[in-house]
Amino acid sequence: MYKVFFNQKLINISTRENITLNKTTIQSTDSFNVFDVRRWFYNFILDNATETVLTHSSPVDFFEVFKSAFIQIDAAGGVVFNGEGKLLFILRNGVWDLPKGKVEEGETTSDAAIREVEEECGITGLQIARELPSTYHVYQSPYKKSKGEWIFKETFWYDMNYSGAQTGVPQQEEGITKIKWFAPAELGEVLENTYENLKQIINLYRV
């Protein structure tokens, strides 16, 4: 099942057989093309449903159709552990976030993830341990002039280890005002003030 977030709304893409949710709207999409996806999405924005399921006989194929209905951007970021087993978070625009950013042309997602953590947190010497599941969300960029230009962003995540002693410097020009290390048992504080699409990553580490 794919999970795509739009603000506080959640779009699940799955086969009908895999549906276990019972408080959501369900829409069959076997006949959907790109224009159908766009039309459906505009209606979804306006309705009161906070969660929905789009069913398809081949979710993998439909996911490609769904993505192509939007401008696609790749981003990458890191879940960074220090020597004490604590996780690194940034306070960006008043919300707890993980360091991440856009993948530049010609850059691998792993290189982009390390660069973004270094730039946003002011630390170096990061080591990637493993790749994590991607997250997906749709939003309207403030830099796009047309109201119809919606962005589909896939963020590639990586587990990283940091063994250095740098305290870090928040990248204030990116709206980052604070850097803080949280123990896994303290992640409830983060979950109270973070983005919906990040919660599935954060919950991998909560104890």
Helices, by number, come to 5
Radius of gyration: 18 Å
Strand content: 35-45%
What are the segments in which pLDDT stays under 50 over at least 5 consecutive residues? Answer: none
Kindly report the spatial arrangement of strands forming the biggest sheet.
3-4-2-1-9-10-5-8
CATH homologous superfamily assignment of the largest domain: Nucleoside Triphosphate Pyrophosphohydrolase
How far apart lie the N and C ends?
25 Å
Mean pLDDT: 93
Helices and strands, in order, run as EEEHEHEEEEHEEEHH
The number of distinct structural domains comes to 2
Q: Architecture of the largest domain, CATH level 2?
A: Alpha-Beta Complex
| Broad CATH class of the largest domain | Alpha Beta
For the biggest sheet, the summary is: 8 strands, mixed
Broad shape: globular
Structural class: alpha/beta
Helix content: 10-25%
Give me the CATH fold name of the largest domain: Nucleoside Triphosphate Pyrophosphohydrolase
Give the total of beta strands.
11
